[in-house]
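Dear colleague,

Thank you for sharing your sequence with our group. We've completed the structure prediction you requested, and as agreed, I am returning the results in plain text so they can be pasted directly into your records. Please verify that the sequence below matches your submission; if there's any discrepancy, let me know and we will rerun it promptly.
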Amino acid sequence: MKPSLSSLIVIVAFLATTWAEQVGSGGIAELVAKEVRRGVDDAFPALKKRQYGYGYGGAPTTMAVVPANTAAASPQAGGYGGGSSGGGSSDGDSDGDDDSYGGGYSSVAATQQRNFQIAHGTLMGLAFVVIFPLGGIVVRTLNSPSVAYVHGSIQAIGYAVVLAGLGVGVWLAQHDASFHVPHTVIGLVVVGLLAVQLALGILHHSMYLRTRRASVPTHLHIWLGRIVLLLGLINGGLGLQLADNTRSGCIAYGVVAGIVGVSYFVITATAKLVGSRSRRGPKVG
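Please find the predicted C-alpha cells below.
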C-alpha cells in the first residue's frame, strides 16, 4: 500500500499556522521560543527548576546567573561562545550595550547548555547533511512508480528532525539572547522556506497526477530545494562557530558538508542528463 502524504500535510499546517499567528503577535522568534520553552518545561519538569536565571515572566529561579563582570574570575564559568573565560565574545564598542553571546552561567548551566548545543547541531546536521540530500537523490535516481511517495516520506522525516532541532535552537537562543546573530536569523529563514518548499511539493504532485507534465511549481520546488539545502549546509558551519567549536571540528564539518553538497549536485545533474537522453529515443505508443 502506498504511504499517504498526511504527515506532510500536518507539518505544513503546523508551520503555516505558526506564521499566521505571528502576524498579529509580532515576532516569530519570540512566539516560537515561548511555545517551545513551554513544551520543554511540560515534557521535562526538572528543567523548569534549573533554567538559566529566569522563567517565563523573568522571575529568578533556583539557578542564578553569575554576573558577567565576575564570570571571568571563575574558571568554571562559561558562555555560549566564551569558552572557559565565561566572557563570551564582545565587539569592544563603547555604546554601553553588551554584545557578547553569553554571560557568566554557572558550570552546571554551561554543561546543560552545551548538551543542548550538541543536540541541536546533531539534529540539524542529520537533516541537512543526510536526510534531505538523500531524498533529493532518490527522486532523481529511483525508477519506480512509487518514487514520489518514497521521496515524500524521506523528506517528511527530515522535516520532523528539523522541527525538533528548531525547538532546541530557539530554546538556546532565548537563553542566550542570540536571536540577532546570523546563524539564528538564517536558521529561521530556512525553516520558513522549508514551509514554502513543502507547499510547492504538494502542489507539484497534485498537478503532475492530472497532467503528467512538469509545471511552474515543479521548477520552483526543485530550485528552492537546492537553495534551502545550500543555506542549511552553510548555516551549520556558522552554528559551529557560534558554539565555539574546535577548529578541527569546523574543518571536519566543512569537508563532509562539501563532499555531500558536491555529490548531491553531481548525482542529480547526471541523473537529469541521462534522463534527458533517454527521452530523446524512439517514442513508444
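Summary note from our side: The chain is about 70% helix and 0% strand.

Kind regards,
the structure core
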